[in-house]
Amino acid sequence: MASVAELKEKHAAATASVNSLRERLRQKRERLLDTDVARYSKTQGRAAVSFNSTDLVCCRTLQGHSGKVGADELTLISLPQFWRSILRTSCFKPDIGIDIPLLLQALVIGRLSPWEGFLSKSYVYSLDWTPEKNWIVSASQDGRLIVWNALTSQKTHAIKLHCPWVMTCAFAPNGQSVACGGLDSACSIFNLNSQPDRDGNMPVSRILTGHKGYVSSCQYVPDQETRLITSSGDQTCALWDVTTGQRISIFGGEFPSGHTADVLSVSINSSNSNMFVSGSCDATVRLWDIRIASRAVRTYHGHEGDINSVKFFPDGQRFGTGSDDGTCRLFDMRTGHQLQVYSREQDRNDTELSTVTSIAFSISGRLLFAGYSNGDCYVWDTLLAEVVLNLGNLQNSHDGRISCLGLSSDGSALCTGSWDKNLKIWAFSGHRKIV
Amino acid sequence: GFPPPCLSRNPSFLGRVILLAAAAATLSSPAMAAAAGDGAGDFSFAAEYDGPPLPYSLPRAIPLDLSHIPLASLSSPPASPSASSSPLPVVRPLTPSSLCSTVHSHAHPVPRSAAPAPAGGAAVVDSPTSVIENHHAAAHHSAELPSSPSDVEGPDEAGRPALPPKPHQPVVTFAETSGSLLQTSDDEDEFEEEEDDDDDDAAARAARPRAAGQTSGSFSPAHIESGSRRGAKSRGCYKCGKGGGFWSRGDKESCLACGARYCSGCVLRAMGSMPEGRKCLECIGRPVAESRRDVLGQGSRVLRRLLSAAELELVMKSERECPANQLRADDVYVNGLSLLSEELVILQGCPCPPPRLRPGFYWYDKVSGFWGKEGHKPHCIISPNLNIKGFLHQKASNGNTGILINGREITKSELQMLKLAGVQCAGKPHFWVNADGTYQEEGQKTVKGKIWDKPIVKLLSPVLSLPTPNKAANQCGEEAVHMVNRAVPDYLEQRTVHKLLIVGSGASTILKQVKYLFMDKPFTVDEREDLKLIIQSNIYNYLGILLEGRERFEEEASNDRRKISQCDPSSSGRDESGFCDGTTQYSLIPRLKAFSEWILKAMALGNLEDIFPAASREYAPLVEELWKDPAIQATYKRRNELPFLPPAANYFLEKAVDISRPEYELSDMDILYADGITSSDGLASTEFSFPQMPFDAQGVDEYDPQDALIRHQLIRINNRGLHENCKWLQMFDDVRLVIFCVAASDYDEYYEDANGTIVNKMIESRQLFESIVLHPTFEQMDFLLVFTKFDLLDQKIDKSPLTSCDWFDDFTPLLSRNLMNGSSRSTRSSHSGATLSQMAVHYMGVKFKRLFRSLTERKLYVSHVNALDEASVLSVIRYGREIVKWEEEKPVFGASETTYSEEPSSYLADV
Questions:
Q1: Entry pTM
Q2: Does the distance separating the beta carbons of B496 and A118 come in below 8 Å?
Q3: Environment class of residue B828 by beta-carbon count within 10 Å: exposed (0-12), middle (13-18) or buried (19+)?
Q4: What is the interface pTM, i.e. ipTM, of the complex?
């Protein structure tokens, strides 16, 4: 028994020394890092990209993630039910009865709708572009994966999911199959060429099971059709062979250098597909080598909140992060330095800190798109750390939190998904290209 | 920039619209036939008409698609194997029997298109009389009714080059064109029924089937079978042959695909279970004949007599909805391009779809929504701006007025209409008409006016058979597109789902119990297999815990003995069994000891689950031996001292020997006791609705028929991974009620958390409860607290006081007097009428209610359950349903919450 106490003491001491070393490392880094990208760029005389509000326009709205039924089915809802829903709202005053003007207003603005019971909630949670065609797959809380043709804004596939609590989706590099994962702790693969069954449901071509927590993110390894990396709420990431359904390796978990909280996001290095980073609720990003599952190559500290999104910089030497602390950061992969913080000035009347939900880089890396939980979507100049545009203020912008965003493979368009059920595609008006 | 949507598509137009020579001839003016003849040098059998516009309507030629050819059941197999697979069965010169069976079973399109067969196949085989009659009739026709489509075979066709047997493209016809070749037996019937009192024309039309009927009579006896059958086909029931002559309407039912008719006695035999509606068994999977599309889903008298109402409804539903009966998108051509299937969906799903859409050629004016058949004036106005490919052609409606509307040259009647509407039409202007009827001249910005403004236009439009806009058509395009997107059909099935979230210890047992209660087949084979693995690996876990305990007990026992022998050396010699030569009753024999050490090591490394289920075959005998070993049994007797042994372990350990066997089959009870639901143990959910009849007729509950409509979904989430800042809980913001389960027996149980501190499980539950209640997603959510494992509480409350949990240290049950009086504790106390365990649950409920009120200012519902007992789970689920209902109806009875303190189960006093 005494030995246990001793061990505990030793452990505490070791933890303390690790922490002090970490602190020293941080100080050392700070000393060495006497500037950041923005300051350096300014000294070099660089000016921020300038956009005006009409340069980037919403050119498509993809609607379809709505569990809404058409007018002809409205009769299905019964009068008593509607009555009850009226009574639940503020239109009903116990003393005076129903406030008719208020009721009409509620009906008009849609706060109260006769088909309320039929509206299933359909937050868009995730989207992904095909590498070649202009197709998008999106996953929503209405329990559907929808494959869109981004050019025509038509749906090409609507896949009903077994488990509607889906959190992520991804397109295979060949564009022939999609993967999705969510609270069922499994990653399901659908082959888009397979025939729907009698009910019109697409059969699952493979289910990857093994995670002990929800699947928060998945991404195909770019040059290998059959490899997939998932991150999960069980604090691990995993590499899968899609054809066999086997888990090839697990990153984290019982190994000491793994994440200590839910992993929320992964991003694979586009120039070296053996490396990937994972962002986690423990406010760290870890770099992994697919070939060495036993330990993380490097751990990046800096954020003060859960890291919701990581994305490799196009050159594969840096990566960006978006976090609950409301900032995006740019890290250098090899040195581990935090190159830049993209922190927005907080609105005075905005008491709640809005978090970064998703980020994406333009093809050149000059622009960083970041979606925020309050519905903003900032376009940052990565060099000067200035906001050049807020898509949330533009015409036709989303009404809800931006939950996911992604750039098409040729960089010509940005797709944003939101909790307002819609996806929107943004592109440059005029002849400008996204730099 | 972002490229515009690709609109151009490689038109496979020519390839599709190749008309058969026969068909070309049916384009029917002699000039045209000649033109086709001229072209014969280039393409011998087909031509596309591109001459000057014709003033009259053109009947289109038929698509002869093999699958379209109505085939009645053949009584005898075809004479040659190719007989049924040949694309144009008639072309083959063949044995008379095979020919006649094919020719005639195919109703008339086949003979017609077959006419150009070498040397007139029909003529060769048919009896001379029939040939003469045929030719006579045909010639008679073409002379009399040059444009009638029913005289397909002009005499000139006989000399035409042979048709290569080529699969026909589904080139298309307007079904409305009278006498369309695809008209099948139903129309035939009408002919037959009417022919006697009809005029010459009808007689002439009927001549063809008649002729067929007559030829049948002239066959030699060798072909009697097929001949008589054929006779039956044209006259009587296709199956039994009865009922020749006239059919009264209510006596027959015909196949939607091939038109074969059956008498009421044979319908069910010929059509079987009708998975695709009224089709004979051979036709299942084939598309329906276009002329019969209208009757899809309309029950007939025969069926109504033969089937029960429910069956009929089912058959009709499948008839309407099965994919084989749907309009095929590539048969519908709009603006010269065949539709893609999505486009068809768009077209049919738009707010104002074209009525009675049939295969055929149409034009569609996207801007104004005008819709019409190719070469005709507008037929109706549908939703504008539908995303359909292809461009409107100037000649789409074959107008010759020179005036263009949206690029289409309008017809004379439209011109008249424009004049009526007061539109200046001098100088052949080009108009741009929008969906709302506003029009402007091309190239000019000013809106000149609204076509539909004058009431006279609306009045006169029907006279000129021009369409007027429908109100819904005026919706702007954006909206129309948006409406289209709803087309995912299973939303229709969706009914109101009340989602109930259940979390906490014992939640999975409740979910499993609910599955048993409401589902016919609660667990699939896979799920059972999964559960079996869980149970099997758990048994090793339990054994491991026992072995750990055994080690401790052994150490203690030997310590004790040493102590005893130290402080009282005299007693060391006393003979106590098991205390001699260093072994205690907890000692194992070496072989088992090795095994136990191995298990313990695996447990310490955390890979027990990886090793064991797979190895269970190998270790089953060892497990048996181990379990039966007195040392383990002795340890098991002291299981109360093993804090980490879960209560369910007792149940499984008792059956350890069975379970460890590979052939172990798990019982329903095992499933209920098992830990978790799936191996990943993520989210699990089940949907159910309360059956029509209430389980117990409670007089208080007025029966609400709505209940049967409302579906409930019970969603269980694992409490592992739940913490305050848990993001995915956002996904459950649409649940109606959170059922939080707390094991009532947890108050004296402990577990070791990650930092190695020992935590009381009740305190842990309280922390979890707090974090969930305070989660922003559940800000306004109703909570139902359910105490599970009430039975265990009942068992142990006597031995282990509730006050062993710090949180409950002020529990002072008013039982003391009774106890002093010596009455058993489990009997009801005279004071409150409740047992000690009930009072304990009550007390804990109050504790939680206080906590909840302090956190949220709202009221917590509390209940308790023994999850192993169906009735008790059912009552909790019903209680949950009632809470949802009450919350919905709350305002009806007054908005204040105070009215609610009297609700059922309020034996748990409100705080």
A1: 0.59
A2: yes
A3: middle
A4: 0.81
